[in-house]
């Protein structure tokens, strides 16, 4: 989860580290720190509980300069949020500094052993054990890279490590074990960098190398050496990233989440650009790596993801099953990875992930690879681990999403899954030409429809301001609207801290009706479509029990508005597109509720955007 950045070169390291950490804050913002090899030959550590701007202030007060340094922004796993537990951690003599992302599962055993050997551990973290192991190995005469390699061999659990030592000036060593987030090495003309995320490197270079599990990168001002897990030097291909250095600028918006919600009309058009031919009703998806024969042979599709991405996966499964007539299901990756699923070479596993670095999703992909399933990643971040593990990637093209709460990436992901479902259906011959053309031409309404929903945000804001006194909310939907309801509830929970449940409306009579009262408003997703009448029955039942209902309906609906308390209207659309449209007002409802409750919607408590640990 944590953000890591490291630099060595001719420039002053600290501003580069701080800029990198600011761009990585979405990975964790409990605390931040840097360790600098100074011009005086010392190793200086500045760290603080709190956000990068607090570290910035500390740096500004100090007169530390140096050309080699490592930095970290933390999402706490072991040990409370305080200065002592923040990274970088240093060895007893203060000469070795380490930043880490991941979990050391056998840390208690290691800490006990180290303490018995005379090491003084100052924090409560798992990480600190590693730097003492490295110190021990260096005292035995090993180089920094060998000491790290040997130390990593003692650790259980996946991790990424970046380390620097005072007596090896100008050198930084990075290493990755397993799938706990990656390390990208940036080759710069007058220096070199490493980071947990391409974003921190792109302002300086687009020449990058990703470390695979077990590999090390040893960077100095003038050189980069790669080694495998045996310590042998290896060649790694330098990739030229075509992702541009998008800067995280708020512009006129008070929060990134609001900015990203507003970008959706334009971003959804990018997802379709060059892929949809509205005239012929056909799709062009050259990034799908499977032959027509392989596609015809698929006998099941399993979509894996977590959180919002799981909700997108649920919508994708319904789309693929209904258009391409392949049995399709969505699985929570953290459950799927520990099952013993039946997969084979005729199974298509689709990993749905904004970051492409979610630990559980990557573990599910590893399991799928072990059973020879075909794999596709539907992903935002090109070059992420998911893109490197899958046979091919469908990039969702939502653009940099800074807010922890996913908004535009979900919209674009569902649009990509919709296009994929039609693509599979075309090859399998499961959709008539007429139906395919209609499904494709429906997509044309998305940018305008989303734009018109956003233009009504003052209406959603007014509703949100009435929700702030509530402690519980129910989101109900059927069919495509069920995952949409779960997503609406997730948004409300994660940024407004209001307990919200997303339920399939048909479940109500099986237990949840007991909760209905005037204290628990229902947000009901009831657009036009084959399940409209069923939803009307559910809403009558909620009203009959004194519940307050805010309904999301299709414009022109005359039935639901006569039953419920408040109405939000969506443009007329198919069921699937109505589900996409419904996301927008629910995102804005959550956003304005959080703002009215004076919460920071961009950095919700206890959360990080990229979850690289289990
Ligand atoms: O990067 P991923 O899409 O794999 O992340 C999965 C979840 O952590 C993520 O979707 C999360 O639920 C959302 N950011 C919540 O808004």
Description:
With about 625 residues, this protein is an alpha/beta fold. The chain folds into three domains: about 250 residues, Aminohydrolase, N-terminal nucleophile (Ntn) domain (Glutamine Phosphoribosylpyrophosphate, subunit 1, domain 1, 4-Layer Sandwich), CATH 3.60.20.10; about 180 residues, Rossmann fold; about 140 residues, Glucose-6-phosphate isomerase like protein, domain 1 (Rossmann fold, 3-Layer(aba) Sandwich). It contains 21 helices and 27 strands. The strands form five sheets. An eight-stranded antiparallel sheet has the order 3-2-4-1-10-9-11-15. Strands 5-6-7-8-12-13-14 form a seven-stranded antiparallel sheet, with helices on one face. The chain has a five-stranded parallel sheet with strand order 19-18-20-21-22, with helices on both faces. The relative contact order is 0.09. The mean pLDDT is about 95. Bound molecules: 5-amino-5-deoxy-1-O-phosphono-D-mannitol (M6R).
